[in-house]
Amino acid sequence: MILGVTTVHELSMTTQIVESVLEEAKKQGAKKVTEVHLVIGKMTFLGTEQVRFSYKILVEDTIMKGSKLIIEEKDGVIECSSCGYKGTVPITDDPAYHIPIPTLRCPKCAKAAKIVEGKECTIMSIRMVK
Amino acid sequence: MTNTKEIVKGEEVTLEIEPGMNILEVNKQLAEKNMELLRKHNIKAIDIMGSIGAGKTSLIEKLVQALKKRYRIAVFKGDLTTTIDADRIGQHGVQVLTINTGRECHLDANVVARAVERISLKDIDLLIIENVGNLICPAEFPLGTDKRVVVVSVTEGPYMVVKHPFTFMNADVMVINKKDLAEIMKIDTKQLEKQVKEIKPDVKVAVTNALTGEGVEELIKALEL
What we know:
The complex is a heterodimer of chains A (about 130) and B (about 220).
Chain A: E1 2-4, H1 9-28, E2 32-41, H2 48-59, E3 68-74, E4 77-79, E5 86-88, E6 91-94, E7 99-102, E8 114-117, E9 121-129
Parallel strand pairs in A: 2-3
Antiparallel strand pairs in A: 2-9, 4-5, 4-8, 6-7
Helix pairs in contact in A: 1-2
Chain B: E1 3-9, E2 12-18, E3 21-22, H1 23-40, E4 44-50, H2 56-67, E5 73-79, H3 84-90, E6 95-100, H4 109-117, E7 126-130, E8 147-153, H5 160-163, H6 165-169, E9 173-177, H7 189-199, E10 204-207, H8 216-222
Parallel strand pairs in B: 4-7, 4-8, 5-6, 5-7, 8-9, 9-10
Antiparallel strand pairs in B: 1-2
Helix pairs in contact in B: 1-4
């Protein structure tokens, strides 16, 4: 048995964003969408450049053409269920790799913490002309 | 409830709405539904992620061989095209369903939900899902499984863990495969283990050779099966 779906990561996510905005605009009876404000968490795998690129292509031939896309990036926040610590994702800076590596190790008690913020891709607001 | 603000400037009416709609949340909710349905049928589910060529299919073959007497197993096999891997797994006498994604770089909860509809849930108690060969994108999309496994192999080089911290943050178990080649590749598997535990302290690690089956018992233990 074979099932089929199509497209790639940022493109499919941006397609969903554009479709959702168009649906809202239709509901409101808008003539044109002028601005879309997104929040993308830094703990997602979404590249903002690729989202912008896909957006530009996807809005062609729609009432969103020429609209301003604002992308606000949101830091990751972790919470530790063992000691209650809540804060930004700690970074371990191992000189061996020359790159800072994010970690889920709780900076207070060293146990495993969970990501509670930074995994979102949210349409915060849409500006449109009626 | 969506907030709406209407601004009138001359003849033009600008409307600002705040849907606060989280696109990734849609997948998460579908994943929770999948999990609920599988749990209702007492089915354990495992999502196996990892790069192309890491050894995911070989590992599943060995898992199926070791577990098929204790569990009634179904395997979902995500691939861009072809049923080559599904045929490999199918020869071990378990039910295999191929999910061809076309160009999509990952499986998502929706396509898994559609696949789940196609199998008889009362006839299985273990579902193994092999994700599309890709170390990055699948981690973004939980499918509703009990455990998420990331398979890496020593031939991928010494930096695959530190270069992909976000992938490993989403893993419950990491498999380091092709252990027989570690020495030739000059890879210290202990070092990889240390790195992944630095990123995710509660991750379990199994070091395997999927061709011989070495380390597969360790993996089964890590998966609590």
